[in-house]
Amino acid sequence: MKDITVILTGGTIGSDVKHGSIGISSGTTESIIRMYKEENGDAHNFDIASPFTILSENLTPDDMNELLLYLKTIDTKECRGIIITHGSDTLSYTAAFLGSVLKDLIYCPIVLVAADKPPLVHGSNAYANFEGAVNLIDFLSLAGCYNDVFAVWQKGGSYNAYLGRELKEADSAGDDFLAFGGMPFAEFLPQGISLTGNGYSWRVVINDLHDNRCEPVPDADERMRILEKGINTDIRIKAVRPYPGFSYGDEDIENFDAVLVYGYHSGTFCTGEGAGRVKDDRLTFQALAGKCTESGKTLYVASFKEDETDVYESLKGMDGAKVKRLYDMSFEAAYANCLMLESLK
């Protein structure tokens, strides 16, 4: 059995600072691996690959698809784990995409890691995140039942591991990631306290909500079709998030194949129904729904709560609208599901 495959894609974790500018630096991520070996000896063998190299803000569905198809070439039955180094800006999108497609289709954990600063800059968490990914794979390989996609992020001396499907974009002030639902998958106790009795410091967060958050809409057979052929990268999804005064009716959808509207946290949208007064019909959800119906484009709406029985009066305004509802998922996971569902048509 192979040990750990490391897939390098660039990002800050693969960058350096030159003349006041951050850019990709050949060999930077490999130096992290060398540092790990110097610190830990030959405890692990790393197979290194690099299907492409980018700054992650330049990530497109083509890149996500290329990464997915590259993972298809790896026999995950023969790997202890896979680490993907990635830029932090779009880490949550790739994690949600891979986690949505690959759920129940892989035989080892895949862990995405990034960095808040280039590895050679003082205070960077690049090495800590890589080391945390290795430790997480060690921990999960003992359990043998967590073959899924994860992301590891270290901040302020503590670590969190997130399910890829639940990872949300980091905030620009603290450079810290969040989980949809507020709870990570696992916590690392850097003092070495083990609550599991197996000598490792990871503790899986006791939270049964992980069983029904950000679940992929396509079933396993449909997602296997995507894994075999990839997504249709020609598909264009218009994804919008409303705000007070957002004009649904002024959104141009002509050059898009489908539309995703990610509503307020209560699963609501401005419809003009219920208490309140909307003077301009262009500010209502119905204005966009009508456009989508006329043009034959699917309108996806998220995120509704699966177990909610009582809904707000405003949602009556959606009655009769042709929409595809997505339940209990982050914006990133909703976007990933739209890519899959449109590719399956």
List the defining traits of the structure above.
alpha/beta, 345 residues, 4-stranded parallel beta sheet, single chain, 16 strands, elongated, 26% helix
Short summary of the structure?
The chain is of the alpha/beta class and 345 residues long. It contains 7 helices and 16 strands. The protein has an 8-stranded mixed sheet, sandwiched between helices. A 4-stranded parallel sheet has the order 13-14-15-16, sandwiched between helices.
Describe the protein.
- This protein is 26% helix and 20% strand.
- The longest helix is centred in the middle third of the chain and has 18 residues, at 126-143.
- The protein is elongated and about 65 Å long.
- It contains seven helices and 16 strands.
- An eight-stranded mixed beta sheet has the order 4-1-5-6-7-8-11-12, sandwiched between helices. It has a four-stranded parallel beta sheet with strand order 13-14-15-16, sandwiched between helices. The chain has a two-stranded antiparallel ribbon with strand order 2-3.
- α3 crosses α7 (331-343).
- The chain has 345 residues and is an alpha/beta fold.
